[in-house]
Amino acid sequence: MKLNRLAQVAIATAATAGLAVGLLSPANAAPKTTVQIVQSNALTGLNPSVSAMNLTFNTDVDYLEQVGFTYYNNKATLVDNTAFGTYKIVSKKPFKVQYTVNKGRLWSDGTPINGIDLLLTHITAAGTYSQIAGLGDPADSDVTPAFDSLGYGGLYEQHVVGLPILSPDKMSVTVEYGTQVPDWRLLAPGVFPVHALMMMAEGKNKLGTVAENNAARERFYKAFDTYNTASLKKMGAIWSKNYNINVVNASTNPLLLVGNGPFMIKSAVANGAVTMVRNPKYNSGPKVKSLQRVVFKVIGDGTAAAQALKNGEVDIYAGQPTADAVAQLKAMAPAVKVIGGDQAVYEHLDLRVGPAYGTTEPYNGPFAGDSQKAKDLRTAFLLAYPREEIMTKVIQPINATSQLMNSLMVFNSEPSYKNIIAKSGVSKFTAGTQASRTAQALALVKKHFPSAAAGSGSVKIKLLYGQPSNARRVAQAALAKAEWAKAGFDVDVTPTSGWSAFLEDPKYDAAFFAWVKSAAFQSGNVGTYETKANYQGYSNPVIDKIYKELGATPFTAAQIADRFTKVDAELIKDAVTLPVFQHPSANGVNAKLQGVAPSPFSPNLVWNLWDWSFTN
Amino acid sequence: MIAYISRRLGVLVVILFGSSFILYNLAAISGDPLGELRLSREPNAQQQIVALTRELNLDVPPPLRYFLWLRGILGVFVGNADFGLTRTQQPVINEILVALPITLRLVTAATIIAIILGISIGIVTALRQYSRFDYAMTFVAFLLYSLPIFWVAVLLKEYLAIQFNTFLSEPRISAQWLIGLSIASGVFWSAIISGTRKRVLLIFAGAATANFAFLSYLSITEWFANPSLGPIGIGVFSVGVAYGVTQLSTGIQNKAALHSSLTMAAIALVIYYPVQWLFEQDGEIIIYPLLVITLFLVAGFVPLKFSRIDRGPIIRTSIISAFIMGLLIVIDQLMQTWKPYMESDAVYFRPIPTIGQVNALLEPGNFWMSLLDALVHMFLPTLALLLISFAGYVRFSRGTLLEVLNQDYIRTARAKGLTERTVIMRHAFRNTMIPIATIMVVDFASIIGGAIITERIFGWLGMGTLFNTAINSMDLNLLMGVFLLTGFLAVSANLIADLLYSALDPRIRAGAGGN
């Protein structure tokens, strides 16, 4: 009895204490589970494969909604998502690849995913299918095809043969390619809830039961297999139009929101915030560590975003890559940390050699042709380009770890970089100090213009570069102009608005801008310097041959590096172009947010959102 | 008159078409919609260029493409105007309809407050011409007038949002701030009231001390973390309102007006608790319009008890007082919502936001929470717009009133023996409002165009943002849609202003033939 009473007192005391602790401890004791991400432009649609919808925000949201066979990590390497499925080469000749979805993967409406869900990619990427099924020719310049997709005309269309074959258990799809595509791993089909598409094409606006969904999916397969134009056209209209919404609320057709990704859209305000919540059925990818909600906020202005970060209204902001903006973010420590990185975008200086492929206007400027004089002048121009000064004054204030790029083929972080630059002959443009290189350049100019001297302006050059609003480019141009003047060049550095339309214009002798790399193709950047592709009118049979090889046969890393070295060597020998830097990125991140590791490829920040978590 | 209006309308149409043609072509050649694709290394970049060219008719030269666009617009005459699609496949008209209310919410409040505040300060400065207050306000007006809004916005965010939020976690005002604010308040009041040196010093000391005591009280009770006016605050303020409104509306010597206003103050105090109970019945939005109607009915009938003659001005006075007292009760209720709002997960103890128009995380459904949320989001942008725009009204109304006060009819009015209040409020003020009314019309039209910079800095997605997006993404349909609306409003507001002027001021008649 006594013991009993004692126990009661003890329990009551403990309960009171517990209650008191619960009431007294501040409400914000638990780590946050909602992350708020800044986007600079509004959401415009849920299907970024539609040609007008390929915008960063749409792609990011879609990435969280749909998970497929592969994704890029922060090292720009393609990672296999084995939780979702596997793929393997089943036959080398003819070249066949089998894609298999793991059993038990679920859509957010509970329907199990199978191979049929992989087939829509064929419709939206193979123009041949579109033509045969009577959905329109994507290459036609007047009529939009039924599926207004931006996937047409790519690697898939170039290589695919016939229809993908569904396995008897419906879990796998086998695709045949005409040749052994070196980049076959990049061709993995995307996954799409075709049952939802089919049901919407049939006019439904409610989620179905699993049985109904399976039946709808079978109907899709039938339409796909038999080229049912009418049915496909209806689906095409839904796919191209109905997903293009910027408002999601209770009255939105839930079929539009079916996905297999870690998060699904809960609400979206027109031109405003988008809220995503956990998909309870998610099992198609890496486990989500702790986040429950993702909110994207639209803030166009960099200073505003930085201040919102400081005020705790947002947690992560891919800052403007300018020195001032980075300094502003850094000043917010310790509440905010700055995570720098490099984007898959690199700045370079291109010289015109002749008229661009396909244009008729001739180019007669000082750099034209293969003559010794033109080559000397080009070499001189590149020698006097103050790349190191640009790095230290313009780029390193943004990302202190940024380094001068010396290969046009690979980024500095790639394993083959050191070998390539050792053999490519780029040392010609790196040896000595800038002063000595400029002196060398002046000597080369003097060979052809005996009166040349520092500031003589013997050679008149017109430079094409970015919008006047891009302060970084203006700074680059000013630094370069001063150095070029020392080598006897008079460079017109007036910025041009709408500059990219003038890339083929022979009025300009040189241009600096950036190339965007969007996927890790085996052929890398070689294609950029192929005869038909470059805007400089440059044509080199050695490079053309290597480009063809790289596009046709899979090579080992060493073989690829070998070819890249050759291409670099040719470009340096002919003095047509020089790289400068990879565009830096600077992300302001709430210091309590862990796991952020920006990737150079889209979707840059959110690629590993599942690993993010907040500490206390 | 009809000839005059129709001629102006004709000119309006010509101006709109001419300027839209020029703008369309300028915008079309200002950038390269294919630019991004030209730099893309995707294997299907060529295909994407074809698709975009097809979508935007880029193969048609801009001067001709303008007419493709115009064809859709001219559909307005046959009843199906087509403003086209944006580059993101949304109908332009929808985008504008979404953006318009947001812009209105942002700019209307700021403009109205700027007008009221600007005109009142302008009038006081004119009446106290060449006083300390006049000089001080002239200085402040020019100072604010010359500030760039992006800079003002950054400062406001830093001090009134970021640091204020931090302050709220421990809402004690530090000693430096207490002293500083008290001195500032002393200077302010002594400058306004003016007088002999001794009087100024007395007022300075009085205001500073009162302010010091008041702020200390707020600080010690941590009022900022859990604010409210309470019945005492409501009572004190209501009596103040009763006296103030009566003085401006009819003059304090009108005992009937004063008594009915004071009765309204008493009623406000009496209904305080019942109204609190009503407010807690959340979700029944229907009661709010009913409350407002009851308020006006009561305010309309109470004066009948106090006077049998000349009831009009008295009813007016009582209604204005009642309205302001009602606002006080609403403010009190919002203050009571402050604490739960601040503690909600969505706000996380940082209630003053720097961006956006609503908190996306706040659960909808609670009327007072949502209202407070909307208001705190409006706070900084409205303040920023207000600060830089009210100066213009101060200067304008001061100048106009001074000019009016020199008119013969003012001297006549004084000579008749009218009280100073009547001379100012009835004879001078009304005539001052004529030119101000016309600039207000033009102002309202131009604010629809959106405050591009303000919207951008505060992350509001209204007309200005739409315009900005359209330019940056080379979205000609959207750009022209926004331009047509703002251009139309600007041109027609000028017309309305001209007509309004002649309607308000019989001395001016805009007749046909341009006389």
TrEMBL record, chain A:
SUPFAM superfamilies, per the entry: Periplasmic binding protein-like II
GO BP, sorted A to Z: peptide transport
Annotated Solute-binding protein family domain residues: 97-533
An MF annotation (GO) of this entry: peptide transmembrane transporter activity
Signal peptide start-end: none
Protein name, per record: Unannotated protein
UniProtKB/TrEMBL annotation, chain B:
GO cellular component, as recorded: plasma membrane
Compartment(s) where it occurs, according to its Swiss-Prot or TrEMBL record: Cell membrane
Residue ranges crossing the lipid bilayer per the database entry: 9-29, 102-123, 135-154, 174-193, 200-218, 224-245, 257-279, 285-302, 314-335, 374-394, 434-458, 478-501
InterPro entries listed in its UniProt record: MetI-like, MetI-like_sf
Keyword annotations from UniProtKB, A to Z: Cell membrane, Membrane, Transmembrane, Transmembrane helix, Transport
Membrane topology listed for this record: Multi-pass membrane protein
ABC transmembrane type-1 domain ranges (all copies): 100-501
Pfam family of the protein (one): BPD_transp_1
GO biological process: transmembrane transport
Broad class of the protein's primary localization: membrane
Protein name in UniProt: Unannotated protein
Source organism (scientific name): freshwater metagenome
